[in-house]
Hints:
By secondary structure, this protein is α/β, with parallel strands linked by helices. The protein contains 12 helices and 7 strands. The protein has a 7-stranded parallel sheet, with helices on both faces. Strand 1, helix 1 and strand 2 form a beta-alpha-beta unit. It has one domain: NAD(P)-binding Rossmann-like Domain (Rossmann fold). It is globular and about 45 Å long. Helix 2 runs parallel beside helix 3, helix 3 runs parallel beside helix 8 and helix 9 packs across helix 10. The longest helix is centred in the middle third of the chain and has 25 residues. The mean pLDDT is 97. Nicotinamide-adenine-dinucleotide (NAD) binds next to helix 1, helix 3 and helix 9.
Amino acid sequence: MSKFAITGGARGIGLALRDLLISEGHDVLTIDLSEGDVSADLSNSIGRKKAIDAIKKWAPEGLKGYIPCAGLPPVATPIEKIPSVNFFSAIETVESLQALLSMDAGSALLVASNSAPMLPHDHPFVVGCLAGDEEKSIAQIKSIGDGHIAYVGSKRALAMWMRRNVVYYAKLGIRLNAIAPGITQTDLTKQVYDDPKLGQAMKDFEKSVPSGGAATPDKIASAMNFMLGESARFIYGAVFFVDGGSDAMLRPEHF
Ligand code: NAD
Protein backbone atom coordinates (compact mmCIF):
# COMPACT_ATOMS: atom_id res chain seq x y z
CA MET A 1 0.00 0.00 0.00
CA SER A 2 1.25 3.43 -0.91
CA LYS A 3 0.72 7.04 0.07
CA PHE A 4 -0.78 9.67 -2.24
CA ALA A 5 -1.46 13.35 -1.55
CA ILE A 6 -4.10 15.22 -3.57
CA THR A 7 -4.89 18.93 -3.51
CA GLY A 8 -8.46 19.80 -4.41
CA GLY A 9 -9.31 16.33 -3.14
CA ALA A 10 -12.59 17.34 -1.51
CA ARG A 11 -14.55 17.78 -4.75
CA GLY A 12 -14.89 16.71 -8.35
CA ILE A 13 -12.02 14.94 -10.06
CA GLY A 14 -9.74 15.05 -7.00
CA LEU A 15 -12.43 13.45 -4.83
CA ALA A 16 -13.10 10.73 -7.42
CA LEU A 17 -9.37 9.92 -7.51
CA ARG A 18 -9.20 9.89 -3.71
CA ASP A 19 -12.10 7.41 -3.51
CA LEU A 20 -10.57 5.17 -6.18
CA LEU A 21 -7.14 5.08 -4.54
CA ILE A 22 -8.67 4.34 -1.14
CA SER A 23 -10.82 1.55 -2.65
CA GLU A 24 -7.57 -0.04 -3.84
CA GLY A 25 -6.16 0.05 -0.31
CA HIS A 26 -3.93 3.12 -0.55
CA ASP A 27 -3.55 5.90 1.99
CA VAL A 28 -4.62 9.31 0.75
CA LEU A 29 -4.24 12.78 2.24
CA THR A 30 -6.43 15.49 0.75
CA ILE A 31 -5.73 19.20 0.93
CA ASP A 32 -8.53 21.61 0.17
CA LEU A 33 -9.97 24.97 1.16
CA SER A 34 -12.05 23.61 4.02
CA GLU A 35 -13.31 20.06 3.44
CA GLY A 36 -10.04 18.17 3.01
CA ASP A 37 -8.00 16.28 5.60
CA VAL A 38 -5.93 19.46 5.66
CA SER A 39 -7.49 22.90 5.18
CA ALA A 40 -5.27 25.27 3.26
CA ASP A 41 -5.79 28.09 0.80
CA LEU A 42 -3.28 27.32 -1.94
CA SER A 43 -3.66 30.70 -3.57
CA ASN A 44 -1.15 32.14 -1.11
CA SER A 45 2.23 31.25 0.34
CA ILE A 46 0.91 30.67 3.88
CA GLY A 47 -1.56 28.05 2.65
CA ARG A 48 1.03 26.40 0.41
CA LYS A 49 3.48 26.12 3.32
CA LYS A 50 0.74 24.67 5.52
CA ALA A 51 -0.02 22.04 2.86
CA ILE A 52 3.62 21.15 2.29
CA ASP A 53 4.35 20.85 6.03
CA ALA A 54 1.27 18.67 6.53
CA ILE A 55 2.25 16.31 3.70
CA LYS A 56 5.83 16.05 5.00
CA LYS A 57 4.56 15.22 8.47
CA TRP A 58 2.07 12.65 7.13
CA ALA A 59 4.48 10.79 4.83
CA PRO A 60 7.99 11.04 6.29
CA GLU A 61 8.90 7.73 4.63
CA GLY A 62 7.95 8.94 1.14
CA LEU A 63 5.11 9.50 -1.28
CA LYS A 64 4.14 7.29 -4.22
CA GLY A 65 2.16 10.04 -5.83
CA TYR A 66 1.39 13.72 -5.62
CA ILE A 67 -1.52 15.19 -7.56
CA PRO A 68 -1.94 18.97 -7.44
CA CYS A 69 -5.55 18.87 -8.65
CA ALA A 70 -6.92 22.03 -7.01
CA GLY A 71 -8.14 24.40 -9.66
CA LEU A 72 -10.34 27.38 -10.35
CA PRO A 73 -12.50 27.95 -13.45
CA PRO A 74 -12.08 30.78 -15.98
CA VAL A 75 -14.93 32.63 -14.25
CA ALA A 76 -13.19 32.76 -10.85
CA THR A 77 -12.60 36.13 -9.23
CA PRO A 78 -10.40 37.93 -8.59
CA ILE A 79 -8.64 36.92 -11.77
CA GLU A 80 -5.20 36.60 -10.14
CA LYS A 81 -6.40 33.60 -8.13
CA ILE A 82 -6.51 31.60 -11.37
CA PRO A 83 -2.72 31.50 -12.01
CA SER A 84 -1.99 31.45 -8.28
CA VAL A 85 -3.98 28.26 -7.73
CA ASN A 86 -3.87 26.59 -11.15
CA PHE A 87 -0.17 27.12 -11.86
CA PHE A 88 1.93 28.55 -9.01
CA SER A 89 0.52 26.43 -6.18
CA ALA A 90 0.99 23.27 -8.24
CA ILE A 91 4.61 24.02 -9.13
CA GLU A 92 5.64 25.28 -5.70
CA THR A 93 4.23 22.20 -3.97
CA VAL A 94 5.69 19.72 -6.48
CA GLU A 95 9.12 21.31 -6.07
CA SER A 96 8.87 21.13 -2.29
CA LEU A 97 7.91 17.45 -2.35
CA GLN A 98 10.80 16.21 -4.51
CA ALA A 99 12.57 14.47 -1.63
CA LEU A 100 9.44 12.60 -0.53
CA LEU A 101 8.61 11.50 -4.08
CA SER A 102 12.17 10.41 -4.66
CA MET A 103 12.14 8.21 -1.54
CA ASP A 104 9.33 6.01 -2.90
CA ALA A 105 10.13 6.18 -6.65
CA GLY A 106 6.98 8.25 -6.94
CA SER A 107 5.37 10.41 -9.55
CA ALA A 108 3.73 13.80 -9.76
CA LEU A 109 0.70 14.01 -12.00
CA LEU A 110 -0.20 17.57 -12.97
CA VAL A 111 -3.75 18.41 -14.00
CA ALA A 112 -3.72 20.42 -17.22
CA SER A 113 -6.69 20.72 -19.58
CA ASN A 114 -7.49 19.84 -23.16
CA SER A 115 -8.25 23.55 -23.63
CA ALA A 116 -4.57 24.46 -23.09
CA PRO A 117 -3.28 23.78 -26.62
CA MET A 118 -6.65 24.37 -28.28
CA LEU A 119 -7.56 27.94 -27.31
CA PRO A 120 -5.76 31.30 -27.67
CA HIS A 121 -3.35 32.29 -24.92
CA ASP A 122 -1.23 35.29 -23.97
CA HIS A 123 2.44 34.57 -24.60
CA PRO A 124 3.94 37.06 -22.04
CA PHE A 125 1.65 35.63 -19.35
CA VAL A 126 2.76 32.05 -20.07
CA VAL A 127 6.41 33.15 -20.16
CA GLY A 128 5.97 34.90 -16.79
CA CYS A 129 4.49 31.75 -15.28
CA LEU A 130 7.32 29.60 -16.62
CA ALA A 131 9.86 32.08 -15.22
CA GLY A 132 8.28 31.48 -11.82
CA ASP A 133 7.41 35.15 -11.49
CA GLU A 134 4.01 35.15 -9.79
CA GLU A 135 3.88 38.92 -9.29
CA LYS A 136 4.68 39.71 -12.91
CA SER A 137 2.27 37.07 -14.23
CA ILE A 138 -0.51 38.47 -12.07
CA ALA A 139 0.17 42.01 -13.27
CA GLN A 140 0.07 40.79 -16.88
CA ILE A 141 -3.18 38.87 -16.52
CA LYS A 142 -4.83 41.73 -14.63
CA SER A 143 -3.95 44.04 -17.51
CA ILE A 144 -5.65 41.63 -19.92
CA GLY A 145 -8.61 40.99 -17.64
CA ASP A 146 -9.84 37.82 -19.35
CA GLY A 147 -10.44 34.76 -17.18
CA HIS A 148 -10.34 32.37 -20.09
CA ILE A 149 -6.89 33.62 -21.09
CA ALA A 150 -5.81 33.21 -17.46
CA TYR A 151 -7.16 29.64 -17.30
CA VAL A 152 -5.82 28.48 -20.65
CA GLY A 153 -2.43 30.14 -20.07
CA SER A 154 -2.06 28.64 -16.59
CA LYS A 155 -2.80 25.15 -17.89
CA ARG A 156 -0.55 25.64 -20.89
CA ALA A 157 2.30 26.76 -18.62
CA LEU A 158 1.67 23.76 -16.38
CA ALA A 159 2.04 21.26 -19.23
CA MET A 160 5.12 23.11 -20.54
CA TRP A 161 6.73 23.23 -17.09
CA MET A 162 6.16 19.50 -16.76
CA ARG A 163 7.77 18.76 -20.16
CA ARG A 164 10.76 20.99 -19.37
CA ASN A 165 11.37 19.28 -16.04
CA VAL A 166 10.94 15.62 -16.97
CA VAL A 167 14.66 14.90 -17.35
CA TYR A 168 15.67 16.58 -14.11
CA TYR A 169 12.97 14.75 -12.16
CA ALA A 170 13.72 11.42 -13.84
CA LYS A 171 17.26 11.70 -12.50
CA LEU A 172 15.77 12.04 -9.03
CA GLY A 173 13.77 8.86 -9.67
CA ILE A 174 10.48 10.71 -10.11
CA ARG A 175 8.08 10.43 -13.05
CA LEU A 176 6.41 13.66 -14.15
CA ASN A 177 3.28 13.55 -16.29
CA ALA A 178 0.12 15.55 -16.89
CA ILE A 179 -3.45 14.64 -17.54
CA ALA A 180 -5.52 16.86 -19.83
CA PRO A 181 -9.19 16.30 -19.03
CA GLY A 182 -11.94 17.43 -21.31
CA ILE A 183 -15.22 18.80 -20.10
CA THR A 184 -16.20 17.00 -16.90
CA GLN A 185 -19.34 17.21 -14.74
CA THR A 186 -18.03 19.03 -11.66
CA ASP A 187 -18.71 22.21 -9.69
CA LEU A 188 -16.03 23.93 -11.77
CA THR A 189 -17.93 23.22 -14.99
CA LYS A 190 -21.22 24.21 -13.40
CA GLN A 191 -19.76 27.62 -12.53
CA VAL A 192 -18.88 28.12 -16.20
CA TYR A 193 -22.32 26.92 -17.37
CA ASP A 194 -23.89 29.52 -15.07
CA ASP A 195 -21.78 32.34 -16.49
CA PRO A 196 -23.75 34.65 -18.82
CA LYS A 197 -20.76 35.15 -21.14
CA LEU A 198 -19.14 31.70 -21.29
CA GLY A 199 -22.04 29.41 -20.35
CA GLN A 200 -23.62 28.85 -23.74
CA ALA A 201 -20.29 28.25 -25.51
CA MET A 202 -19.39 25.63 -22.91
CA LYS A 203 -22.76 23.90 -23.29
CA ASP A 204 -22.33 23.87 -27.07
CA PHE A 205 -18.84 22.45 -26.66
CA GLU A 206 -20.20 19.65 -24.49
CA LYS A 207 -22.61 18.69 -27.27
CA SER A 208 -19.68 18.40 -29.69
CA VAL A 209 -17.67 15.86 -27.68
CA PRO A 210 -17.26 12.83 -29.99
CA SER A 211 -17.91 10.31 -27.21
CA GLY A 212 -21.31 11.91 -26.63
CA GLY A 213 -20.92 14.44 -23.82
CA ALA A 214 -19.07 15.45 -20.69
CA ALA A 215 -17.12 12.96 -18.59
CA THR A 216 -18.09 12.04 -15.07
CA PRO A 217 -15.22 12.58 -12.61
CA ASP A 218 -14.65 8.83 -12.17
CA LYS A 219 -13.71 8.53 -15.88
CA ILE A 220 -10.91 11.06 -15.42
CA ALA A 221 -9.88 9.49 -12.10
CA SER A 222 -9.48 6.01 -13.61
CA ALA A 223 -7.06 7.35 -16.23
CA MET A 224 -5.18 9.21 -13.50
CA ASN A 225 -4.97 6.04 -11.46
CA PHE A 226 -3.39 4.31 -14.46
CA MET A 227 -0.86 7.16 -14.91
CA LEU A 228 0.11 6.93 -11.24
CA GLY A 229 0.40 3.15 -11.16
CA GLU A 230 2.97 0.48 -11.96
CA SER A 231 1.49 -0.14 -15.42
CA ALA A 232 2.66 3.35 -16.39
CA ARG A 233 6.18 2.99 -15.00
CA PHE A 234 7.87 3.84 -18.36
CA ILE A 235 5.62 6.82 -19.04
CA TYR A 236 7.46 10.12 -18.53
CA GLY A 237 6.50 13.53 -19.87
CA ALA A 238 3.13 12.53 -21.30
CA VAL A 239 0.25 14.96 -21.61
CA PHE A 240 -2.52 12.39 -21.54
CA PHE A 241 -5.76 13.66 -23.14
CA VAL A 242 -8.84 12.16 -21.52
CA ASP A 243 -11.50 14.10 -23.33
CA GLY A 244 -13.82 11.81 -25.27
CA GLY A 245 -12.03 12.63 -28.53
CA SER A 246 -12.31 16.45 -28.53
CA ASP A 247 -8.59 17.10 -28.96
CA ALA A 248 -8.32 14.65 -31.86
CA MET A 249 -11.42 16.19 -33.45
CA LEU A 250 -10.13 19.77 -33.20
CA ARG A 251 -6.38 19.21 -33.71
CA PRO A 252 -6.13 16.09 -35.85
CA GLU A 253 -2.62 16.93 -37.09
CA HIS A 254 -1.13 17.27 -33.61
CA PHE A 255 0.03 14.40 -31.44
P1 NAD B 1 -13.99 21.17 -8.64
O1 NAD B 1 -14.42 22.58 -8.50
O2 NAD B 1 -15.00 20.10 -8.51
O3 NAD B 1 -12.78 20.85 -7.66
C1 NAD B 1 -11.72 21.73 -7.48
C2 NAD B 1 -11.25 21.65 -6.05
O4 NAD B 1 -10.17 22.59 -5.87
C3 NAD B 1 -12.36 22.04 -5.05
O5 NAD B 1 -12.47 21.06 -4.04
C4 NAD B 1 -11.89 23.37 -4.52
O6 NAD B 1 -12.30 23.65 -3.18
C5 NAD B 1 -10.36 23.24 -4.63
N1 NAD B 1 -9.73 24.55 -4.59
C6 NAD B 1 -10.04 25.63 -5.34
N2 NAD B 1 -9.31 26.69 -4.94
C7 NAD B 1 -8.52 26.26 -3.93
C8 NAD B 1 -7.56 26.89 -3.12
N3 NAD B 1 -7.28 28.20 -3.22
N4 NAD B 1 -6.93 26.15 -2.18
C9 NAD B 1 -7.23 24.84 -2.02
N5 NAD B 1 -8.13 24.18 -2.77
C10 NAD B 1 -8.77 24.89 -3.71
O7 NAD B 1 -13.28 21.11 -10.07
P2 NAD B 1 -12.74 19.90 -10.95
O8 NAD B 1 -13.42 20.01 -12.26
O9 NAD B 1 -12.77 18.61 -10.20
O10 NAD B 1 -11.25 20.39 -11.18
C11 NAD B 1 -10.11 19.64 -10.79
C12 NAD B 1 -8.99 19.99 -11.72
O11 NAD B 1 -9.31 19.54 -13.04
C13 NAD B 1 -8.73 21.50 -11.85
O12 NAD B 1 -7.33 21.74 -11.85
C14 NAD B 1 -9.34 21.85 -13.17
O13 NAD B 1 -8.75 22.97 -13.76
C15 NAD B 1 -9.07 20.58 -13.96
N6 NAD B 1 -9.93 20.40 -15.13
C16 NAD B 1 -11.27 20.33 -14.99
C17 NAD B 1 -12.07 20.19 -16.14
C18 NAD B 1 -13.57 20.13 -16.05
O14 NAD B 1 -14.24 20.15 -17.10
N7 NAD B 1 -14.17 20.04 -14.88
C19 NAD B 1 -11.47 20.11 -17.41
C20 NAD B 1 -10.08 20.18 -17.50
C21 NAD B 1 -9.32 20.33 -16.36
